[in-house]
Design brief:
By secondary structure, this protein is mainly α. The protein has 2 domains: 3-51 and 89-151, no CATH class; 52-85, no CATH class. 39% of the residues lie in helices and 9% in strands. It has 5 helices and 4 strands, in the order αααββααββ. It has helices spanning 3-16, 26-29, 31-40, 92-111, 120-131; strands spanning 64-66, 69-71, 138-141, 148-151. A two-stranded antiparallel ribbon has the order 1-2. A two-stranded antiparallel ribbon has the order 3-4. The radius of gyration is 19 Å and the shape is extended. The protein starts with a helix and ends with a strand.
């Protein structure tokens, strides 16, 4: 992670697990170093994950063509508990990097500043809004597809 990404991750961790009367929080525990090491290693490189696709919707009706073969019945319906898990054509390190870019864009749009520079209450509001799928109205660059999305 670069310095900006580290600051965002540290701010997220500090917001979620702050220092309090029970002891040190995530920042003091060095969570940023653990996450950075994981993203630089096998986890971040998807070492044990199948990444060959095809990357299609979970259930797609109508015909689909994969590597020159057309399947007239679409894709099989997927069960949520079938162990599908992570299904993106980028590794987890890039997934995190894109997510941090998106989080920072949300903070800038909602509060006019980078996530790491916001107050604890503002950071909590940004994370809560995203958790509840209710970000404030804004348009941002969508880091997973390269498209601009209007979120409301």
């Amino acid at each position: 992670m670069n310095g900006t990404e580290q600051a965002i991750v540290e701010a997220v961790a500090e917001t979620m697990i702050p220092t309090d009367s029970n002891g040190p929080g995530a920042k003091e525990a060095g969570v940023i170093y653990f996450i950075d090491k994981q993203l630089a290693g096998d986890y971040g490189n998807n070492a044990k994950m199948y990444l060959q696709g095809p990357f299609i919707q979970l259930t797609q009706t109508g015909s689909i063509t994969v590597k020159g073969i057309t399947y007239s019945g679409g894709s099989a319906p997927a069960r949520i508990t079938a162990g599908i898990g992570y299904q993106y054509p980028i590794n987890l390190r890039e997934f995190w990097r894109n997510g941090l870019t998106f989080l920072d864009a949300c903070a800038v749009s909602a509060y006019g500043g980078s996530f790491a520079g916001l107050t604890l209450d503002q950071r909590t509001s940004v994370l809560t809004d995203l958790w509840n799928n209710k970000p404030t109205n804004f348009t941002v660059f969508h880091p997973f597809t390269g498209l601009k999305l209007a979120l409301s």
